[in-house]
Amino acid sequence: xxxxxxxxxxxxxxxxxxxxxxxxxxxxxxxxxxxxxxxxxxxxxxxxxxxxxxxxxxxxxxxxxxxxxxxxxxxxxxxxxxxxxxxxxxxxxxxxxxxxxxxxxxxxxxxxxxxxxxxxxxxxxxxxxxxxxxxxxxxxxxxxxxxxxxxxxxxxxxxxxxxxxxxxxxxxxxxxxxxxxxxxxxxxxxxxxxxxxxxxxxxxxxxxxxxxxxxxxxxxxxxxxxxxxxxxxxxxxxxxxxxxxxxxxxxxxxxxxxxxxxxxxxxxxxxxxxxxxxxxxxxxxxxxxxxxxxxxxxxxxxxxxxxxxxxxxxxxxxxxxxxxxxxxx
Length: 329
Prior knowledge:
Blueprint: H1 2-91, H2 95-106, E1 112-119, E2 122-129, E3 137-139, H3 145-152, E4 156-157, E5 178-185, E6 188-196, H4 209-234, H5 252-269, H6 271-280, H7 283-286, H8 288-301, H9 309-320
């Protein structure tokens, strides 16, 4: 019995050892498999993360390429729009049409624009877009962009170091920008283009519309000056103003056309004074300096040898400015 018990104990020990060895073997195999699976999962996760990162980079690159393409398209559209505006200004046949085209073209760049004619110390609204209440005429406000344009002959901004202000009718908020550019014929500022970015949308910063409007204003100024020169030259002979007859003398028709041109410019740029002069029947007193300047230019181009030279100017003065009524002068 003792031998049998000893044999059973030994058998149990051998069985326990075998079970422990098998358990250790299974445990080692399981750990190995688990470790291998962990490595596989880790590798799969790394590969997936790498793929996702590459996908994100690809999307970012695609987004960046799309943004660059959109920016190029926007710049191209802006240049094409400006080019079309310049061509429309070039096609304008009269001084008035040039200013009207300028207002239309400027309104494509920013929502609120106005062309203001300068008549001495008075400013008169010629045409505008986006403003609801622009007075017909009034004195040039001191300390504003319009006054700066007239005085310096250069573009001016609101909110700059000089503290210039927008015109009163603009009602411009402090966080918005106002801009004015002079329209010059020769050395004289005959009008001012005013514009601002007052709108319900967000303000673009930096904005390109002031540069675009300065370009349009400068080109319109050149076209206004060229129109005057072309109209003069079209009525000039090779040596002097006006088509000559067989003896090389200036004709009566040419003299009248030149007088009409000079006086029409007074009518355009000083329409307010012309209207008041007609109402008060004091045109010559009210517009004396402008009429004298026109008469001086007329006498410089029309020779004294033309019979009735001064009478032609006076006749056109009555017809153009006084609407045919000599008593209005």
